[in-house]
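Regression test case RT-17, inverse folding.

Input:
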């Protein structure tokens, strides 16, 4: 695909800059409409915010409380479509709101019934008001002092970066050219209109120009950087808010239900979500003045989430219990006082500059498909191609299967799990686990390099598997072994393997709760 982009003869119809949820969704939609499509991502697919979510496909209970019914309706519809189109990654999960005042039960119970009604035919399961005994049965480790009962409702739970990989594969299967580690370093203009991009291969070093009839800026928190390359006088539209999560052992929230606390001290919702046999607690809403491709959780944020988790768990988790801590930066559209990011828009925004650059920002994973549809409708007008209808509402995402996969580590691959099983059958050594405390097998690393465009140890341990998030310290222990598997597959030598493993270990320090690594320097101009 890199050679294809370098040797293009005719302009692409659509060029997308940014390989997160929104950019990948745009690539799928564009390719599904039959357009010649190119996507370039400066790092790995979903390296930024899109691999650092709360792992929820949800309508947004907090938006219902705010009265943003249109956003909730859209998100609930998209939740249902994603559950249908990627059943190997999106799962129905019960969420429990514990109530500690007698009036909270009816209040939240009515609210969740409204949530059910808004979901309509795409609803997952109905909500229920629970007694104290029922609440304790579903949340065995909940703090019982003062507990009155609870309310249960259903939302979706998923693996974000695995979905990103599958979207890249879906787009590629539809004919799109998908390039990770290729950075957009400039825009090409003809007669004042954007007609392509200047890019640099971050692995090979080559720089080249790619022509395109429309360019989409889907770079998340960095959209203003590319907008300023288009027009140096443009006004910034994005405020950055950091959300962090801590990962605890499953013993802190056993059972099949997640915990949802509607309001914490900073006004956000607190979730405790079972995920890959651990539990993810988050999140915060901290305004930040700088953007970074590799953000770090601040100590106050880490302590905040840990303290709030302790308020609702019978056994208080300590720093020693934390397996990993990760941070993500939300691109929020500025409106009024940007110092209060909790009040800024979570809706997506599309802007078209005078030169035709199409910028999209805001939104969330759940609504990525609808965002892409809106973007492509705009890009069609800019590019001058014949308009074609969106077909992604019913498009099955790569890996789609409804057949249960017994191995927990292979389940996220969906239909691809069969091919990985065949690899292990042919070479039993590939069935060995990478580490006793992680579920992953060596065959997965081989598959990720051959079929999923993994280029580094970080690609494998952070996003193709989720080892970095599930147990940061253990992931550091296997970095060398993983590098040893990757190197010959990519034609690299031992020196590369050692350097790649060392680089990963340094990065993983920032995910260790007790590591005192400060926030890494911000990446400026990272488009």
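Golden output:
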């Amino acid at each position: 695909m890199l050679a294809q982009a370098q040797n293009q003869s005719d302009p692409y119809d659509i060029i997308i800059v940014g390989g997160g949820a929104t950019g990948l969704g745009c690539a799928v939609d564009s390719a599904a409409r039959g357009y010649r499509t190119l996507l370039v991502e400066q790092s790995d697919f979903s390296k930024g915010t899109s691999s650092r979510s709360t792992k929820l496909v949800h309508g947004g209970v907090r938006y219902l409380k705010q009265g943003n019914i249109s956003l909730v309706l859209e998100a609930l519809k998209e939740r249902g479509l994603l559950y249908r189109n990627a059943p190997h990654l999106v799962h129905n999960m019960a969420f429990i709101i514990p109530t500690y005042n007698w009036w909270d039960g009816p209040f939240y119970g009515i609210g969740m019934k409204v949530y059910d009604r808004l979901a309509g035919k795409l609803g997952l399961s109905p909500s229920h008001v629970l007694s104290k005994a029922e609440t304790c049965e579903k949340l065995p480790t909940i703090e019982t002092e003062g507990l009155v009962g609870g309310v249960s409702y259903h939302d979706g739970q998923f693996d974000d970066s695995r979905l990103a990989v599958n979207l890249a594969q879906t787009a590629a299967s539809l004919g799109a050219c998908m390039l990770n580690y290729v950075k957009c370093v400039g825009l090409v203009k003809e007669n004042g209109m954007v007609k392509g991009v200047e890019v640099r291969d971050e692995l090979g070093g080559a720089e080249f120009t790619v022509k395109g009839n429309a360019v989409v800026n889907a770079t998340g928190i960095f959209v203003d950087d590319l907008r300023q390359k288009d027009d140096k006088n443009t006004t910034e539209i994005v405020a950055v808010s950091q959300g962090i999560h801590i990962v605890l052992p499953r013993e802190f929230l056993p059972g099949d239900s997640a915990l949802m606390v509607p309001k914490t001290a900073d006004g956000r919702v607190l979730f405790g979500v079972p995920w890959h046999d651990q539990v993810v607690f988050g999140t915060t809403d901290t305004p930040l003045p700088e953007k970074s491709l590799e953000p770090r959780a601040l100590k106050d944020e880490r302590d905040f989430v840990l303290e709030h988790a302790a308020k609702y768990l019978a056994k208080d988790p300590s720093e020693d219990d934390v397996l990993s801590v990760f941070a993500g930066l939300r691109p929020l559209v500025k409106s009024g006082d940007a110092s209060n990011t909790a009040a800024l828009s979570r809706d997506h925004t599309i802007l078209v500059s005078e030169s035709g650059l199409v910028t999209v920002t805001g939104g969330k994973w759940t609504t990525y498909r609808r965002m892409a549809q809106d973007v492509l409708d705009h890009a069609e007008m800019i590019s001058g191609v014949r308009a074609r209808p969106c077909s992604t509402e019913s498009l099955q995402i790569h890996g789609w299967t409804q057949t249960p996969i017994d191995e927990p580590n292979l389940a996220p691959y969906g239909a691809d799990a069969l091919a990985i099983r065949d690899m292990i059958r042919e070479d039993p050594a590939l069935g060995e686990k990478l580490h006793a405390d992680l579920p992953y097998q060596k065959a997965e690393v081989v598959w990720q390099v051959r079929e999923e465009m993994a280029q580094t140890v970080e690609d494998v341990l952070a996003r193709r598997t989720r080892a970095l998030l599930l147990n940061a310290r253990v992931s550091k222990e296997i970095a060398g072994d993983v590098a040893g598997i990757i190197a010959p597959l990519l034609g690299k030598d031992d020196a590369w393997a050692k350097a790649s493993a060392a680089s990963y270990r340094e990065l993983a320090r920032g995910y260790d709760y007790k590591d005192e690594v400060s926030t890494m320097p911000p990446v400026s101009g990272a488009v």
